[in-house]
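F.,

This is the one I mentioned.
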């Protein structure tokens, strides 16, 4: 079970695997060193760096992901893991990072983003996720809570159990004013399916830069509100 703590009225996870450095673009200038330093201040124990795959505008190229296995594994007392938030490209579940690079990463998050992935029906989008999660390095389904990419949650959760992948509850999605659509209602459906089937979930900040590193305040509010069992909150490490 993941433990989280309160600090300055916010909830922070002790393991945050969905974070972005300046290699993701998105205007942040914070380096991995900046994130690790901030993680130490927030009592984060394991920090995962999961920059956007190369299909995302402004993100790093494949050479960046190819070299991650050479990076330091500990900074400021923080255990560092290096992954990627790979883009699902099509309903076949094709990812924008090739196998020879994925197998050298610690983990992979799979996500859909506009305009990279063209949304289909709920059935088509669900199959895209399922086909992508068959890759052994895929461990987390990123923000599968956006109505712009509808999915069948019971079917998705059943597949997540089969392939040992954790659906994510994403703090950015649940933050008021999020650009994603109907995330709260969709997260409730996801959590209900997970509770019914006994599928664990992971809480993530999705922080772009250090400002919101480890923050899962909105995630914790929701799981407490609906009474989701905390024993089903996990991590891959």
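My design for it:
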């Amino acid at each position: 079970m993941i433990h989280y703590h309160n600090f300055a009225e916010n909830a922070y996870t002790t393991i945050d695997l969905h974070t972005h450095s300046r290699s993701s673009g998105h205007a942040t200038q914070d380096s991995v060193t900046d994130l690790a330093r901030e993680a130490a201040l927030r009592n984060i124990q394991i920090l995962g760096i999961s920059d956007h795959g190369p299909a995302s505008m402004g993100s790093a190229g494949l050479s960046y992901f190819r070299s991650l296995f050479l990076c330091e594994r500990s900074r400021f007392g923080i255990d560092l893991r290096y992954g990627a938030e790979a883009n699902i490209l099509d309903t076949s579940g094709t990812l924008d990072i090739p196998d020879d690079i994925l197998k050298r990463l610690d983990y992979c998050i799979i996500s859909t983003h506009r305009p990279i992935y063209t949304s289909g029906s709920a059935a088509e989008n669900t199959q895209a996720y399922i086909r992508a999660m068959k890759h052994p390095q895929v461990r987390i389904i990123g923000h599968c809570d956006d109505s712009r990419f509808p999915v069948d949650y019971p079917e998705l959760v059943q597949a997540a159990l089969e392939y040992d992948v954790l659906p994510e509850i994403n703090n950015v999605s649940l933050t008021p004013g999020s650009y994603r659509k109907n995330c709260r209602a969709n997260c409730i459906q996801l959590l209900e399916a997970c509770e019914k089937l006994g599928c664990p979930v992971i809480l993530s900040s999705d922080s772009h830069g250090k400002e919101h590193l480890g923050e899962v305040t909105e995630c914790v509010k929701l799981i407490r509100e609906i009474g989701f069992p905390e024993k089903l909150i996990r991590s891959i490490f």
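The chain has a mean pLDDT of 95.

Talk soon.
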